[in-house]
Design goal:
By secondary structure, the protein is mainly alpha-helical. It contains eleven helices and six strands.
Length: 274
């Protein structure tokens, strides 16, 4: 941390507001960055202030494309932690490309910066008040060319009330509520199929001159409630859909099936202690 090492964030800031709420706009001086912090330092964006000043991640004070990608990655990790439905292997495989050491190092870094509570794994991590405030700010300031990301347990995991409900009517109501909370996007998992053929399909942009969508992946079930269980699991992770879509489009549909099965089995084994 660059300042206030011994003072918890929630004791010096309002933890209910997005990180950086104290930074104000001063665009009267042409040629200078418009955002000003409490020390008079100027920034082009809240993301730059976070990455350069708070986290000290750019030594030359030049916030560029590579830094923006790293900030987006930080958002991905914080959102996954906040969702709290991902197993350790899911974090390692889906986010860190099977890099177990990289995952452990990132967890240590987040803990050292006091963005998560001390923990041996990211899957069991819990955001600190500052980590939560940073998550809200980053999700609210995504570039225009990136899809909106719902955040928080009610956003990233909108069907949370589904799990203790064995009632199919309640399950359907929870699923529809979760679907309504999803951001508008060209990439989307959907339920499909008629009697005796329950499907989940992944729709995405077609390789065509006109703006059309096509199916890039699908899986079928004999019984709708089996399909709905997997669909509910997918609904809990809308922030991963773009990456999963790229797997299906750039590799093959079977590669996405294998990837999702790896995540699903990893989560099940972790819950069972295998």
């Amino acid at each position: 941390m660059t300042r206030y090492d011994d003072i918890p964030y929630e004791d010096r800031r309002n933890p209910n507001l997005p990180w950086g709420y104290w930074i104000y706009i001063d665009d009267e001086v042409r040629g200078l960055p418009p955002l000003v912090d409490e020390y008079g330092h100027r920034w082009r964006s809240l993301r730059e202030a976070l990455w350069v000043d708070r986290l000290g991640m750019t030594g030359n004070y030049q916030f560029g494309h590579v830094d923006e990608e790293q900030v987006e990655f930080l958002l991905t990790v914080l959102a996954m932690i906040d969702r709290r439905v991902v197993c350790t292997e899911g974090v390692v495989t889906d986010v860190f490309g099977d890099g177990w050491h990289a995952t452990a190092h990132y967890a240590a870094w987040l803990s050292g910066e006091r963005l998560i509570e001390p923990t041996p794994t990211l899957a069991s991590a819990k955001l600190t008040p500052e980590g939560q405030a940073i998550l809200v700010m980053l999700a609210s300031t995504r570039p225009a060319d990136r899809a909106a990301m719902p955040i928080g347990p009610s956003g990233l995991h909108p069907f949370a009330q589904l799990r203790p409900e064995p009632d199919q009517v309640a399950m359907e109501a929870a699923i529809r509520k979760a679907e309504a909370a999803l951001p508008k996007d060209t990439v989307r998992f959907m339920r499909s199929g008629g009697p005796g053929r329950a499907l989940i399909v992944l729709m995405g942009a077609a390789n065509a001159k006109l703006p059309m969508a096509e199916t890039h992946w699908s899986i079928s079930f004999k019984r709708p409630h089996h399909r709905d269980r997997l669909y509910a699991w997918l609904l809990a992770q809308p922030d991963r859909w773009q990456d999963w879509y790229r797997i299906a489009r750039e590799q093959r549909a079977g590669a996405l099936t294998e990837h999702l099965l790896t995540l699903f089995v990893g989560q099940d084994c972790e819950e069972r202690g295998i």
